[in-house]
Here is the input.
Amino acid sequence: MTSHLQQVNAALVVGASGGIGLEMVHQLLEQPTIHQIYATYNRSNDALQAISDSRLTQLPLDLTNEAQIATVVQTIQATTPALHLVVNCAGVLHTDAMQPEKSLRHLNPQQLSDYFLVNSIGPALLAKHLPPLLKQGDRAVFATLSAKLGSIGDNQLGGWYGYRASKAALNQLMRTTAIEYKRTCPNAIVVTLHPGTTDTQLSRPFQRNVPPDKLFTPQRTVRQLLLVIDQLQNSDSGEFFSWDGNRLPW
Ligand SMILES: NC(=O)c1ccc[n+]([C@@H]2O[C@H](COP(=O)([O-])OP(=O)(O)OC[C@H]3O[C@@H](n4cnc5c(N)ncnc54)[C@H](OP(=O)(O)O)[C@@H]3O)[C@@H](O)[C@H]2O)c1
Here is the structure.
């Protein structure tokens, strides 16, 4: 890891129980200059619980519950004056009860609402509560994992209405956050990031047509994302980046 990440004292990883989030915690713990990492989980996770490191604090967080978001921020504030890095790795594509919609025939309001609650509204509420921890004079990055599928300009295939729309909404909410943070947290850089197709439970049912060289391990994905995060400039706030550092169309 390079320069900016070496100046991170305290970091928060939201969705640390997921494939990319868990690896994000592992790679941040490899950084000796980081004194404190807060990692949130929705459901408990054995692999996360198994990490034994005095720098790691694990906290429950369901992003659909605003009171819990406020509690997490207050808990962090009690021990840390400021965060230099927040990476939100939470997101939903499918569950036992929901599958991405292939056609308008499959749309139902409850499922659409569930996509928006986790993928769009939760991150926006996180952005609402984080400012006390991002107001310091030092550089801070607030990165949320989005998806290229959320790009409206790039949508040639259709389908997956709820996931696509909730990620497009996420991109707009974070762009708007970036504009407000320029006034309220001027040293915070707000971005959305496309991690690339990564071998996690989220992509597993849909990997059949992905060429092997386009399917990243979580280790590779997190290395690439941390490189992008490390190289961000203040002027990049509000932008949507791919894993290789290129900007993606809205
Ligand atoms: N994998 C890919 O190919 C790919 C491609 C493009 C974009 N992405 C994006 O990258 C991010 C990480 O994906 P992943 O592959 O690591 O997926 P994953 O392994 O399924 O992890 C998803 C994470 O989201 C958390 N989550 C779900 N609902 C939540 C809620 N209500 N509150 C808080 N956390 C919640 C999960 O927590 P629990 O398991 O504890 O519920 C889990 O930690 C997602 O935003 C995804 O959309 C992934």
Notes: Residues 3-242 form a domain with the Rossmann fold fold (CATH 3.40.50.720). Residues 15, 17-21, 41-43, 45, 61-64, 89-93, 118, 122, 145, 147, 194-195, 197-198, 200-203 surround NAP (CB under 6 Å).
